[in-house]
Amino acid sequence: MVSGCCRLDMSSYVSVLVLCSLLLWGSNSQQEQSSAAQRCFCQVTGYLDDCTCDVETIDHFNNYGLFPKLQQLVASDYFRYYKANLKKPCPFWEDNSHCGVKDCAVKPCPTDEVPGLKPPGFKYTEEANRAHEEIDDCEKEKRLSAVDESLSVEAQEAMLKWNRHDDSADNFCELDDEESPDAEYVDLLKNPERYTGYKGADTWRIWNSIYEENCFKPKAVQRPLNPLTSTRGLCVEKRAFYRLISGLHASINIHLCANYLLKDTWMDKIWGHNTAEFQKRFDATLTQGEGPKRLKNLYFIYLIELRAISKVLPFFERSSFLLYTGNETKDTETKKLLLDVLLDARDFPLHFDENSLFSGDKKEAAKLKEDFRQHFRNISKIMDCVGCFKCRLWGKLQTQGLGTALKILFSERQIENLSESNQPSEFHLTRQEIVALFNAFARISTSVKELENFRTLLEKV
């Protein structure tokens, strides 16, 4: 009798154990299913380090306000054409790994298709520039610049001085020689940034070089492509620089995941969101916890560039500033839209406080600022080592855009001293810098918007 009871109790125990195991397995399965949609984003929330702003505020401000305006702005004639030399040799190592994939190629734009290079004024033509090279160097250097034919001689002389100043110590980028025969205008709308299928060895080498050789990196970092394992021990300036590079890297990866070549046949190509590729780059489990940190650094670079365009408002709101393409009606509309974007940026409630940078000992701060600038110039040079020409184009544009943003942040006094007239000023932006600045910020803005799309898609995984 007792033995039978024992057998019954043991049988019941086993049944309970099996039932509990099934319930536990079901619970874990449900947890795994829910975490699959959250592993990339569960940590991407709340306040950002070194900032008083939170992720949610940026999402709402960007996705439902600034993003659509920026897309309209960069589609305008003034902002869609960018001049770049994509044939410069790599200055750091011998490189013969140019991409042979068709989607790596860039389609240059004939000069007669670029608004502003031809009439209404003959002086905007190439023939006029060659004939009067010794008289009007400004026109030679800036055939697509924001110059209307009604500008005074004084204004043209001022621009000439500005051009000479552009290569001074204020620049954070290695600028292309726009007069090089290898420099060509590119229609950015016809050469979108997206995954090209290029998988050259230098794709790893580029970012490895940026992180390993040109960043203020913590000594604890052993793997350059997982750079943010620890930023303890870095001052706020070095930490900020490091997070800018990581944020730029994250943004570029998001663009590639959002415009991925999903189908490639002889009949057509289909581009779209690749959630598996996104998880590979940003899932906490698949990136040893680094993915969410990279995404938070995207928001950090967003704040930096947003702060820059808010501070440069006085430069653009002068009535003497023109967005010249030759179509007066469209030029007026484009400037109105530009000012609308700048005013929205100015009214953002939780800006990054750039005064926290370089605010210590003056001598040390000056050295740190110069190191900051030199490191970034080196990074801009590395973009000439990218084997995929389309990737090189967007890499050069986005590094120049970020460099222009840094130039603005560190030119507060010069911007405050701007006058309404076209008298020579310590602060000036070239047309190339303007185009790069707003296209680069539009790319960062697009990345933030795409995170919302990937959140929705991953909930279905």
UniProtKB/TrEMBL annotation:
State any GO BP term from the record. Answer: protein folding in endoplasmic reticulum
Q: Which residues bind FAD?
A: R194, T196, W207, S246, H249, R281
The record's subcellular location field reads: Endoplasmic reticulum membrane
Alphabetically list the UniProt keywords.
Disulfide bond, Electron transport, Endoplasmic reticulum, FAD, Flavoprotein, Glycoprotein, Membrane, Oxidoreductase, Redox-active center, Signal, Transport
Q: Catalytic residues?
A: C388 (nucleophile), C391
- Asked if the keyword Glycoprotein belongs to this entry, the reply reads yes
The Swiss-Prot or TrEMBL record annotates one GO molecular function as: protein-disulfide reductase activity
Query: What membrane topology does this protein have?
Result: Peripheral membrane protein
* PANTHER family cross-referenced by the UniProt entry: ERO1-LIKE PROTEIN ALPHA, ERO1-RELATED
What's the name of the protein? Answer: ERO1-like protein alpha
Q: What organism is listed for this UniProt entry?
A: Xenopus tropicalis
- Give the classification, highest ranks: Eukaryota, Metazoa, Chordata, Craniata, Vertebrata
Whichever gene encodes this chain, its name is ero1a
